[in-house]
Amino acid sequence: MSFTQEYQLIDNPSIVKKPPQLKKQKIIKYSLLVLTIVSLGIASFSILKKENEILVEEKIIIKDNEGEKILIKAKPRLDKYGVDLNVNVLDGIYTMGFNNDVEAKVEDWKLYTPPCPYLQPVKHADNDINPVCEKSSLQIANFEKNNGKDLPYVMPLNTISNQLEKWKEWEKKNETILYGNQSVKELVENKYHPFDYGYTGENTENITDKKYYNNVINSRMDEVPDPRRRRLFSFILFNAEYDLLDLYLSEYYDIIDYFVIYESNTTFSGNPKPLYFTRTLLETDRYDKFKDKLIPLPVKIIVDEDNGRGKGFPKEHLARRTVIEKGLRSVHARHGDLFMHGDLDEMPKAHVLSRLKKCGGWEHLQAGIGGGPKSFKNGNVDSYFINPNMNVTVNGKGEYNVDYSRNYSISFLSWFHEYSFNIIQNSKVGTVAHPNLSIFDARRSLGQLNERKNYNKRDSVSSYSDPLLDPNFDIYQGYTYTDNTNDLKKGKGYIGEYLRFDTSKVPELKGKKKATIWNSGWHLSSFLPTIDQFYNKISSYSHFQSYGKKSEETIKKDIINRIKNHQYIYGSKKKYNSVNSTFPLSYENGYEYNFNYDYWNERITSKNNDIGFKKYINDMKREIPTQVWKHPICYSFMIDRDYGIDKKLWWQVIPKEDWKTVKFEELDSEIIDQLVSPNYPESLKKQMLKYLNI
């Protein structure tokens, strides 16, 4: 593949295109030419721009006490709706080279792992992607019984169109409801739970996607889009876990509208690092099948403080705050859009995400009574960001005391797996309430007060002005925090990391009356292919101090020992349990789901011993992502942890020159048997090879 990346010369406004990798011959010729020009004193531009900057064939390389770094800068890349996917790379950012070599390609990185030869978006079953909402349901964890280990609550879903009509009827009654005082059991009862989408327009189904979403991103923030066409965004943190990112993008491409992917040019432990994802996206074809939804967010970390737990966690907290704020800006979020934040290894189940995106009836669990922004054009509407007479106070952390929602977010109660899907923290109940999903509220973003409350009532005084006519008014100010130079929370605004921290302690969810979606995801903790990558993780993340100052060899031996003994990778060697994953019977059809409300409600309320239902529940608890079971060779280490430790991975068996062209279905049966785990059903393996050969 031929590729060129744009780099801008310092002190030179022109943009030039040059291949990012220099050939030795060109370097020699160029160097001789430069020496000749300099010696003659007729250089057309300065070779040394500053004392620590040198120009190498139109690339800017900077030297500092950490070594050489290269400037990565991209030109605008507009999608079909007008969103600039490169918006966060336009100004450029310096980064170290791969293997500390600014001339190296990403494929030269010593820990680089190739993509699965069959890497592409997963085609989920139509019933999973487009649920029949008026008959569907959502399962909510019931912590009142056996700490959530028993059957969940089930709540009915509906079409958003039906929910809009029901709101109109409820509003006529002039009643009041305070969701903040309700228990989870009350929140999920089989009845209409009033929620105001803030939308009063017509159904826009006859408008093409291109025209509709182009209008949305160019609309005023105080205008409410059609909630039936709301978008879903994912804001995630990335270090260098290519296999997990491949899996994440494949699994959710058909569901999520944009992925904003944060990475920094230093680790949370403070060491400089390359911009792995940004450069891979810009300089290779690895993510070409996904790049129309990918928005890189490379960031320079400026925080350097110790919060008592080390310097890593303040960096992590600010990273989460940054990816949410910058993510919302990057995607042109508008009222009613859904945004999800989590780590790359926190994966919700695709069928759950689809129901949340496409169906209504659950929104009050997070947003409470809801409501939309009022148009500043109409008068008698103001923003407390510019009108001090509204007397809106802030709490001790600087958050505005306005009752916009019932909770920061709704969470996914996920199964905590360590190293692979056959090792689990607790096989009876999910132990992680992440990632977290929230509904974007333009009232918060604009600083408008809400009309209806979830917890209490607030009176205010306002005078009219239209801040959207002021080009300097920040329409995302309500999702911004004014001081991100430290983790002390001395500023004002939205503290994005609280979206996550609000559900970090699962045992407290019951007391806080927080709804979390039952059996709804996986935490793929330390799902890394090789020991070298485990060591890279240890030395990069916020937990890095837990290994002390041990040598690399000692740490690697410790990791191998922990893996073989099913012990957690950090801290005390807590032992986890062994489990067997369930696989679908049909490779083509995948898992078969039934989320019909009546089906669930009848079996939960009757408390009968339906053997088929019990098996269905158990199978759902041990299901794994579609991309994994469809490609057991590429993700063998996720199915069987012996791979990458005692058994070879596919790219350790297949020669490097064949990585991109290999066809697994054409390999000898002996090699297939070597690469496919015995945990994988033989009947499914035969179907897979037959399917790949079509």
UniProtKB/TrEMBL annotation:
Gene Ontology annotations of biological process type: N-acetylglucosamine metabolic process
Transmembrane segments: 27-48
A molecular function GO annotation: beta-1,4-mannosylglycoprotein 4-beta-N-acetylglucosaminyltransferase activity
The entry's keywords: Membrane, Transmembrane, Transmembrane helix
InterPro entries per record: Glyco_trans_17
GO cellular component entries: membrane
Keyword Ribosomal protein (UniProt): no
The name this protein goes by in its record: Glycosyltransferase family 17 protein
Lineage of the species this protein comes from: Eukaryota, Fungi, Fungi incertae sedis, Chytridiomycota, Chytridiomycota incertae sedis
